[in-house]
Specification:
This protein has 5 helices and 4 strands. The chain has 158 residues and is α+β, with helices and mostly antiparallel strands. A 4-stranded antiparallel beta sheet has the order 2-3-1-4.
């Protein structure tokens, strides 16, 4: 995968869109210092090159009664390609798992789960997480307080 060359306008477009994906093209053009058509072309190129993956709406999990965040380290019994693929496929089907990362070191994966309550997490653990393919060990940590949460990537200047 080759790196895409981004100039200062591309970088500023990405910064602005990370803050507000609903901004009009006219307002975006004005904020980044380009006229409408060149700005629109750049956004379309960034989408075509899969730098902009999608535009979403961020929700307040607490207002939706989803105030419990759990981080789970997972160790698998086997580490062959098929085992890893089976685990990763199974994780996709569990809605409460909002992130899954492969990790270095002794643990194989780090999951982030968001649920309504500790009781709901316990049910999820017993009914689904312990039954994921080839799970050897799960280690759960409950977040006490969210200090920072952002989806914005740190786009550096040139």
């Amino acid at each position: 995968m080759s790196r895409v060359k981004l100039d200062k306008f591309d970088r500023e477009i990405l910064r602005v869109l990370q803050r507000d994906a609903t901004i009009s093209m006219a307002d975006l053009s004005q904020k980044v210092g380009l006229s409408h058509t060149p700005c629109w072309r750049r956004v379309k190129r960034l989408e075509a090159e899969k730098i902009i993956l999608q535009k979403v709406t961020l929700l307040d999990n607490k207002k939706l009664n989803l105030g419990v965040s759990v981080f789970i380290y997972v160790t698998l019994k086997n580490h062959d390609g098929e085992s890893l693929n089976d685990f990763e496929k199974a994780v996709q089907s569990i809605e409460a798992i909002v992130e899954c990362h492969t990790t270095s070191g002794e643990k194989d994966y780090l999951l982030k789960v968001i649920v309504e309550s500790i009781e709901e997490y316990e049910h999820l653990l017993k009914s689904k997480l312990t039954h994921l393919p080839l799970v050897d060990h799960l280690s759960s940590t409950f977040a006490l307080k969210q200090v920072k949460n952002t989806t914005a990537l740190p786009i550096k200047n040139l």
